[in-house]
């Protein structure tokens, strides 16, 4: 116990040794800016800074990289709220309720919720990371393909919750998303599917063009065609909405229970390799809707729908560090990069991180926590200015955001990505006109591949009787069945009541 | 008089034939290391590069082994090419074949070089892959960074405890794999096929790290791994059964090395030994640095000099070893060309097996 405390304090002490704080602040600022640009994400920026990082000392490099990475999920929600354009793919859930809030003139409040929830979620994620240190390796060993399969299935059942008033259409869209995930090379045998001999599709559809197209460009087409500005409020006088900022901050703390639960969800999902921030965000959103007192308001500007995904996607980073530090297994693509950097500057993931190098691990934990707090505070000061953007007219807004979005989409270097984004932009616009929910497509797309991979691995390793061999998976399966049964029963009850109520 | 003339004619013909044979039929790459272009041309080439930027392509995404090696080399190459900037660029796709295809048709002006997967390139060509647009014997090779090394790891609770229990196991041995259809898959499986023990493949792990995790968790018995596996052996989280390396891998002393004379102990058939030798030659290609075909010899010379100096620089070697424990085994461009030509002429039975292994299931 004594060593843990020593390492704890040593870890934080290293952050305050100059010039490490400079590295952290620098990383945070860059992370915030990059998070706002749609499509340009943590990974692209991390790769950009790799050559410089190689020459840094470990605490400096950690502060810079993790400072940058911890907040890229923070500012992504801001563009989702203000323009209905996800800054990160995970922000697609935030816009479901965040954007309607902007339309009602509550943009500043929504932004402030985004930032505060991100901050709290990130800190909780870091805290959970620290607490899990003694059991970290046992956790990673206990969760294998069978358990991942159940977690993914659980994610898929949330499709209904994202579908607003049209559960069946939502489920169909989820299925469409899964179908889209089949395009490209089969993750098990490498057989190429549905590519129509177009080599670009060998790696499958890419998440960034899909989300930016469906959500961002779909919205832009609407503004361009309708020629409106985002905020529909009548009074457009110049007003600094500090009152809304404060409302947003207090809102998060008033709903601490929800924030905590969503952070936990984010953390658990972050610890599963391969399942990304998108899933964490959507599942939290679905959970918030299911446990809300006003579920019917979701999709029309219920602040809980903004709080949930933002808390989750920041907490996810803490979770993703668990397999990364404990075993050197990256929890996400960005973690793979961070891992590579760790190794090159001499940090070796594995048992040493939890014993000999424990103080370094705590430096990581503290960096993530502090970066979230500092990042949120920095960004909060800018919120009222940013919220003014919602009053811009379409003529300025559309070209500006279109360029920013396409810039992000093109970060991979394939011009076909832009074509895809534009294609899905048209699809997204049409779906918007027909009031068909777009979120389930993204969820189905992300989960489809993970479902296929883990299904095949589970069957190869354990055979069809896997639930009998893996108790944790069995428990998860029972939870899923229970959740679905409960959902079906309550819908049935509502309809029964409506029918009888109307009759009498 | 006639005899004198006859001897003259014969001599001329012989010398002429010799010159003809020596001058033609070799690749540019093979030539340029045997006779250095004249000094003036080399100086002109250096002047060409000065003030320009060379694109150093990595055929995988950022963060992997190829990426790390390229970035480590970058600053040393700038040191040996004064006035020249070296920019690392990631071009992932189709398991490194996308970038390799691109390099083959890039402008041969010396401003594009790449780190390539020697195993992947050769395996794809021998296996008759449809997606490749190159001929491995025609690239301009500048050097090898390191050979590929592997270790067969087994879980601590697995039925495989040593080479003996691997070759005569008490049940089917489960092998964890990422996926078929790549050079890495083919070279691993051709070796394991040659060892002929009852084996079941578990496909679908999305990365080497997850594959190794499967071994640790006991989902699979074995995995043929690279750096990650070696690290796990050193940390005693898994057992090493055999290694495949031109020398003894650090930390794996005493573990049988099937690429050394240890393999004689296994009493394999001639066909089996040929396959292991083929795999050894293939893995020897490892991580190589290449440039487009038909590169002017003086520019190739300047580039190769910078690459070779980097790979033999003690500071670079120390840096590579300290940070990620990478072995650096330099080879010249010419030696790589020769190995490639030799590999392409593989015997038909091995070639057929490679073709089957390179196909997706």
In summary, what is this structure?
The complex is a heterodimer of chains A (504) and B (361). Chain A is 73% helix and 1% strand.
What topology does this entry show?
The complex is a heterodimer of chains A (504) and B (361).
Chain A: H1 2-15, H2 20-36, H3 42-53, H4 58-83, H5 94-103, H6 107-131, H7 136-142, H8 145-157, H9 167-181, E1 184-185, E2 192-193, H10 207-226, H11 242-254, H12 256-271, H13 277-291, H14 304-327, H15 333-344, H16 351-354, H17 358-380, H18 383-387, H19 394-409, H20 415-433, H21 439-462, H22 466-469, H23 471-503
Antiparallel strand pairs in A: 1-2
Chain B: H1 2-23, H2 28-34, H3 39-49, E1 53-58, H4 65-80, E2 85-90, H5 97-104, E3 112-117, H6 118-126, E4 140-146, E5 150-155, H7 163-167, E6 173-177, H8 183-195, E7 199-203, H9 208-217, E8 222-225, H10 227-234, E9 238-244, H11 270-285, E10 287-291, H12 297-312, H13 314-324, H14 333-344, H15 348-358
Parallel strand pairs in B: 1-2, 1-3, 6-7
Antiparallel strand pairs in B: 3-10, 4-10, 5-8, 5-9
